Amino acid sequence: MLDLLGNLQRTHSCGSLREEHVGQTVVLMGWVARKRDFGVFTFIDLRDREGITQIVVSEDFAPEAHTKAKQARSEYVIAVKGEVVARSPETVNQKIPTGKIEVLAKEILILNDSKPLPFELEKVGSQNLASEELRLKYRYLDLRRPQLQRNLMMRAQAIKKIREYMDSLGFIEIETPILLKSTPEGARDFIVPSRIYRGKFFALPQSPQILKQICMIAGFDKYYQIARCFRDEDLRADRQPEFTQLDVEMSFVNQEMVYSVIEGVFRSVFRLIDVELPEKFPRMTYNEAIERFGTDKPDLRFSMELKDLTESFKTAENIASSPFASALQNGGMVKAITVKGKADYSRKQLDELQEFVKRYGASGLTWIKFLEETQSPLAKFFSPEKLTEFAEKAEAEKGDIVLIVAGKKSVVLPALGALRIEIAKRENLIDKNTYKPVLITEFPMFEYNEESGQYEPAHHPFTSPMDEDLEFFRRAVEKDERELLGKVRAKAYDAVINGYECAGGSIRIHQREIQELNFKAIGLSPEVAKERFGFFLEALEYGAPPHGGFAAGIERICMILCGTENIRDVMAFPKTSSTQDLMMDSPGKVDESQLDELGIRIISD
Ligand code: ASP
């Protein structure tokens, strides 16, 4: 028989009692995390989202409560009325904030029972993690784990801080609809069929991009929203089909003015974990980032920069017979990273690194061990003096190893960039307690898609070219000199912290003519542009102010704040990496009648 809650009220949470409460009668409610029976005494660790309090139940002192305690099992929901008592010094538990007290129960109510859990909560978080699949199916149980409770509370705090900060700067929060028309960010749309207009569809926003720009045209000046975005992207472990952004737009601004809002909002959020980010983040152009770090998301917590050896090799005697000959003849490059003090890497370690770069498309990896005498597979082609020269060019000192990749720029940079991170992880070069933000600027306006043969927007099609490149851009589109498009730089930027892209944005195009040119550049015919974005092109004709903004990924930020690399650890109800909700079993089927109403027929494969 279960007990009724009646009028009983909680007086404290399970994380709040301290020595100063000793002597008070309190009421706690929560879940039985652990129970230990010692004959006349039973101990219960009672848990709620705030923490754990030890309950002592004595058969002599409270026989009825003791009987209840004996009945209670793991994850039963109970209410305890009792007195706060100090623990004797030898039983104090330093590991929990309530560890100096316990509650001596006078009365216990069993409010609900629980089936034995499909996995042990206590074990989760240790090495014995139950499979993520099982934990996602029983998400409500996994969410009881203190770690996940803390993460979601941190997320709530972060969003609150963001709102406070944005409000303090005079931004207004405006909600934009979820049932929308396509707002492209480079992914597929999720679409929702309309019942009333058969054969027509809404699209869920990939971001509120167009609407926030329209808010600027409408004169709101400073907008923000904690916005849900939906992107039907190809599966990737750290992606979710829906996620949340702090979405921001401002009128009458240039890049620096947007940067100061990005800096301010990140500074205020990171104070939640007592981290003081710099007032001004370092700036680095996209080109500089990829040349120095092999990526536009550089992790600046350690150096190990990429060094260019192209010229040194090109001018070396014997290069023609070396393995780099063909790469260099085809306009490729030779780059290297130097790992300090690792000239003793074994054959096996080097083979592993070799395999690693191959995964990024590199044909292989070669090395120079900079010892008293250099050792290198390249010794067949170059003299020891020459190898020393290469190593010194890569800023190696005695005892270091230089790891070298040659080939096309589009392969060498990402491969070495990834190798740089891999080695930093293997060699523990990353100080987990440092936070290094950087603003990456001057992104290319377009990316060439080799498959479709089209230039695509590197950010989204509403991004403005840089003033310096505007004429160039105009010429490229008007005269159809398309290969020039690859050289146009955009007023686009990203904020990167510890190698994670945490925010991205741009100054927008605010003139119809340029917007139309941009649609043309990416291969949209005037008819298609009108059909998809006609309303927006028209809006640009009614006094659109210069404007720009950014969006910051809430999950990304929370992952850094919570110190987790798993995006699902900072979302209440995430989907699997194959886009399923295992708890609700969605996506699921719908009734035939619903499909009939929508005029939809399913064609099975
Ligand atoms: N809409 C962009 C995004 O979702 C951000 C922006 O340009 O403001 O990445």
Task: State the main characteristics.
22% strand; alpha+beta; five-stranded mixed barrel; 21 strands; binds aspartic acid; 605 residues
Count of DSSP-assigned helices: 17
Low-confidence stretches: none
- 3D shape: globular
Which strand order do you get reading across the main beta sheet? 6-9-10-21-20-19-16-11
Output the structural class.
Answer: alpha+beta
Bound molecules: aspartic acid
The tally of strands reads 21
The percentage of residues in β strands lies in: 15-25%
Question: How would you describe this protein?
Answer:
α4 crosses α16. Helices cover 29% and strands 22% of the residues. The protein is globular, with a radius of gyration of 30 Å. β17 (446-449) and β18 (454-457) form a beta hairpin. With 605 residues, it is α+β, with helices and mostly antiparallel strands. Bound molecules: aspartic acid (ASP).
Quick structural overview:
By secondary structure, this protein is an alpha+beta fold. 29% of the residues lie in helices and 22% in strands.
What are the SSEs and their pairings?
Blueprint (H helix, E strand, L loop, with lengths): L24 E14 L2 E8 L2 E8 L4 H9 L5 E10 L14 E12 L19 H6 L1 H4 L3 H23 L3 E2 L17 E3 L7 E3 L5 H9 L4 E9 L11 E10 L3 H16 L12 E3 H8 L13 E2 L1 H5 L10 H5 L3 E7 L7 H13 L6 E4 L14 H10 L7 E7 L1 H18 L10 E5 L4 E4 L4 E4 L12 H9 L13 E6 L2 E8 L4 H10 L4 H14 L7 E7 H9 L29 H7 L7
Parallel strand pairs: 3-5, 6-9, 11-16
Antiparallel strand pairs: 1-2, 1-4, 2-3, 4-5, 7-8, 9-10, 10-21, 12-13, 13-15, 14-15, 16-19, 17-18, 19-20, 20-21
Helix pairs in contact: 4-6, 4-16, 10-12, 13-14, 14-15
The structure holds aspartic acid.
